[in-house]
Amino acid sequence: MEFNRSHRVYDFMAVRKYWIAFSIAITIVSAILLIKPGPKYGIDFLGGTELTVQFDGNVDAARVRAVLDRMGHDHSEVVPTQRANEYIIRVEKSSPITAARREQIRRGVAERLPGTTGGGTLGDFRLSPGGDHIVVQFNDSTLNAQQVAELVRAAGANVRGDAALQMGALDDHRWQVPLVGIGDEIFRGLVAPDGVGAEGRLNASVWVSPKAGAELRYAALRAVAYSIVFIMIYVAFRFDLRFAPGGILALVHDSLVTLGFFVITRKEVTISTVAAILTVVGYSMNDTIIVYDRIRENLAKRRNARMLDVINLSVSEMLSRTILTSLTVVLSVSAFIFIGTGVIRDFAWAMIIGVLAGTYSSIYVAAPFTEWIDSRFFHDAHAASAAEPPASDAKTADV
Amino acid sequence: MNRGWYWRLGTVLFVIVAAFVVLWPSIPKLSTPWVRAHIPFRLNEGLDIRGGARLSYDVQIGQAIADRRARSMEDFRGQLASDFGIHRGEGRLTPDEITRLAERVTVTAGSTNRDFIARFRNAADVARVSDRMITDRGLRRISSSGSTITLGLDPREVTTLEDSAVQQAIQTISNRIDELAVKETSITARGETIVVEVPGQDQAYFQQIRDIIRRTARLEFKILDDESPALAAIIAGQAIPGAPEGSPAPTAHPLPAGITQETELAPVGPGRNAQSTYLRSTGPNARQQLQDYLDSIRTAIPEGRQILIGKSDRSDGAATTGETWRTYTVFSVAQVDGSMIDDARVSVDPQENRPFVSLNFNRRGGEVFARVTEENVKKRFAIVLDDRVNSAPQIQQRIGGGSARITLGGDSDYRIVLREANDLVVVLRAGALPAPLSEGKQDYVGPTLGSDTIRHARNAMLVGIALVLTFMAIYYGYAGWIANGAVLINLALQLATMVLFGATITLPGLAGLALTVGMSVDNNVLINERIREELREGKSLRAAVDAGYAHAFSAIFDGHVTTLISGVVLLQYGTGPVKGFAVTLLIGVIANLFTGVFATRVVFDWLVRGLKVKSLLGAK
Question: N or C end of chain A: smaller count of CB under 10 Å?
């Protein structure tokens, strides 16, 4: 079997204007989408709420997942613990409390302290970002766990249970007061008559911080930026300065398009998406380099040919390889689209979009840009060497 | 076939067998209990597929606040010393300056963990404490009366500290785990509790992670005050010479049984020695006993001094049951600390054949260390790690160039010392924790994903791989099968290398493996297409194979070098999952070149040279 059996040379570059316009448009649209509405980050990046639930009867994880899905928490994690029928459930939602409400509770606590026996004075007052608990700290206080919970409840907070938890050293008088929030709502849904079919206890409901905060995104971005610099240097040495910018443009195009696809389809950006984008970057670079390699080879063989013709020839010669490789990559992950679920299906989508973009951009982003740089900045040198056939040509024309 | 070919064949076969041996215990259907017992390598599955241990830690924020107060106190002392004309420049106070400052003012900790009290000898000096001096340091005035002024940390400072302590602790823990392994680990905060989830079942590995997380890793260099009469005076209940007026009347603090008071002749400057008093205790509870006694005399210890505990290298021969611990009286100002360390490594002392940790100072650290050693020649200095004296060598001369060593582990086994040294290097390089952690419970958790999801992903991976293999076989015929063989070896090789590195397979990792198969055929596509081109130019099959490999290699080489570059950069600048990805990428590059180019060539050469096949890839 063989693609492009006729070994025709297609004039890819004749229609390049339209494709360049298309590429610019799609890149700009993707960039705008990334700013507004912006990617939908998942629990990995934004954090969420973690519930620890102990069921009284036999309940398996699949059942809990099914009920959560029905309640609309379809990206939740259900983790069995070492105790039977106890699960750690992580959902993306949290129940943040507004700054005004926070201030209201703080003032409520501070105002009630002088009238409370053994209250002391209010030191720190902090509200968890997920709105799941308040940390209060008193100076010279003799309040106990129940009194602290009562005090905070009287100040207007929706306190869960009737006791606060002491933290750190005893003489620091630092207390954590749990609040009612999204966790309680989910728990009620789970033990409702149409839920998992068992009663249970909500042992804890806390806000969980992101697994990978902004620093992972920055680390990934910074690492990609550095590798672009190093690869540009390599390409400039191994090929020519003309080739480097096109490769980078193609790479930016591919990663933006892949991310833009995630924004449009409202797919969630997770740590796996970061891995997928890094893979796309690698594939895009590799594919561009392989097309460049053939252009370089053909340029050396045909010293006086127009750059556009060399590109057409090279892309045509590589056509069967290009189709073949992108096809095998798409084939290898396509099954995840049909059989896989959740995160892994999104990963497969990212790869397919990225690989198609990477293949396309080598031909219609990197190559035309290299040609443009060549004609814009190196044309004079070319014209000069073409005008007076140099003597050295005879020596090198034996290819 | 020539000799070179046999060598290449041998290499390929060796690599295949080695990869199989590494993977053998992880394939339930092929391995026997004997194999599982004798081959230590295992495929690690991630938290999403397998679950693992869940460790929780509470950040002791109260302690972080107390530490900030301690730094503010040092800072405040330094400012007063400059105002009094005792100290000049930016550097920290020298032991001599501390003694002179104590004659004018004492600064001691207050009743809560966020305030401190300055007592001036001369009430007029209180005026030196301006509002500006207080607010600039993030402090506030709580009260002042007569010659005494009480200052506290500004509540806003405290809030910032609380907000950042947990974040910094998470950052430090992830740096440490990054230094240690490439296993996928989840580190998240719930309020002031940090939860670390580690995949797998390996108890020894969990223990190592716990050891590494727990250490605060605060490294400090402090000068010993061997001339201090304080300890002896406190024990006897005498007034400490030079103590400020108005100090509470001294009471005797008799030593409990088990602690002995000792003296040693210690160098205290060029040509000078002094009898230095210290406490010593031997036995299973020696350290705790000393600590309890020191806690009981804490308030009596004079200004700017600290009494620390360290393991004693001198043991009294036969009578030693358990370890011997002793005390050191030091100036509390840390002259050099962990922030001045550039790098830490494990080295082995060639004479004693014993590992130690060598430290390199950064530029500032090197300058400070040179100055401090110059000013304190022929005195002893203590290397203090997490408030425990590691060793107290004598400064022989000014030490420039900036390196120091930490010795470890008394007379334990070489391997234990080596592990201790490695762990210490990890924590020193990753930096100190902003606050101590108290260790909570260790729990075990199941996989985060359901068994259906995992089964579907596994099936999808197999279907994806099968599709690629079938397609290659149809498209290239026999040559396609050569490529397929290479791809399968490639897969085994990558898995085996991941096993050797201790990396984890996660669900997206399964998709990554399928993707690897799709991408790694590219080498063979390039080569095969090139061979076809060469054939079209009329070359013989044998010549076409040679030319095909030679010409395709340039593109393959450039493609792999760029991937290699980005892999190395990601490894260098990435963190956590990005680093794990970089490792996989680098393994992939090597495995790809080996199987796609080197191994397939062996087969092609055998076909065209050994079997003298004439028809391949559509050539007649």
Answer: C
Q: Which residue in chain A has the smallest CA separation from B536? A: A7
Question: Does residue B550 belong to the interface with chain A, where contact is any CB pair within 8 Å?
Answer: no
- Tens-place pLDDT, residues B274-306: 899 999 988 888 888 899 999 888 878 887 788
- What whole-number distance in Å separates Cα of residue B108 and Cα of residue A136? 27
* Fold (CATH) for A12-41+212-380: Multidrug efflux transporter AcrB transmembrane fold (1.20.1640)
**Per residue in B541-598, pLDDT tens?**
889 999 999 999 888 988 888 888 888 888 887 777 777 778 888 888 889 899 988 9
Report how far residue B215's alpha carbon sits from residue A253's, in angstroms, rounded to the nearest whole number. Answer: 46
Most A CBs within 10 A among B55, B112, B581, hence the mutation to make, goes to B581
Longest dimension (CA), chain A: 103
The shortest C-alpha distance from B192 to chain A (Å) reads 9
What is the model's pTM? 0.81
Q: Which domains does chain B have, with CATH numbers?
A: 3-50+448-610 (1.20.1640.10), 219-243+252-441 (3.30.1360.200)
Name the DSSP letter for residue B255: P
Angle, CA of B358, B364 and B370, to the nearest 5°: 70
The single-letter DSSP state of residue A232 is H
What residue spans of chain A are helical by DSSP H?
A: 16-35, 43-46, 61-70, 99-112, 145-154, 182-191, 214-238, 243-264, 271-301, 307-317, 319-338, 342-361, 367-377, 379-387, 393-396
CA distances from A178 to A102, A189, B174, B485 (A): 14, 20, 28, 59
Q: Which of B529, B532, B561 to mutate to test the interface with A (most CBs of A within 10 A)?
A: B529
